[in-house]
Amino acid sequence: MTIKDFMTHQHRECDQLLVLAEDALENKDFEDAAKKYKDFKDETLKHFEMEEEYLFPLFEEKSGMTQGPTQVMRMEHTQARGVFEKLDSAMEQKDSDRFFSLSESLMILLQQHNAKEEQMLYTMIQNFLQDENDAVVEKLMHYDS
């Protein structure tokens, strides 16, 4: 498995977790929705952390690019974290209308963000870290902050 494949697969897993949370909320099962939303948030934030604390610095070290695409991705991660704070509040208040509005905004942000990573950044990372692919994927598979 390549670095690009692994990280792209993680995007799909996170997307699916949000769908499960929204489905539970649609069925007015707030307890299940809260649990599934927490799973989505935790996995998405872990993915961000893997990139920010491990993958991006490794790429920046190898490529010498520190102000390029990784900087943009970090800014978008910060934007998403801001939406998560609002989603937390909506979920605590059991305000499904607000939650759905915010989750739609977050999904649009993440889809655009993920497309940039998958179509550009992960390919760049793959090219620079090709010789270390297996070790990097192994580290990502067992990543623990």
What does the secondary structure layout of this molecule look like, with pairings?
Blueprint: H1 3-26, H2 30-63, H3 69-92, H4 96-129, H5 133-141
Helix pairs in contact: 1-2, 1-4, 2-3, 3-4
Strand content: under 5%
Order of SSEs, N→C? HHHHH
* Rg on CA atoms, Å: 16 Å
Poorly predicted parts? none
Distance between the termini: 22 Å
Global geometry = elongated
Biggest β-sheet strands, sense, barrel: none
How many helices? The count is: 5
* Mean pLDDT over the full residue set: 96
Q: What is the number of beta strands? A: 0
Helix content: over 70%
Structural class: mainly alpha
How would you describe this protein?
This protein has 145 residues and is mostly helical. The chain is built from five helices and no strands. It has helices at 3-26, 30-63, 69-92, 96-129, 133-141. α2 runs antiparallel to α3. The two termini are 22 Å apart.
Features:
145 residues, mainly alpha
Quick structural summary:
With 145 residues, the chain is mainly alpha-helical. It contains 5 helices and no strands.
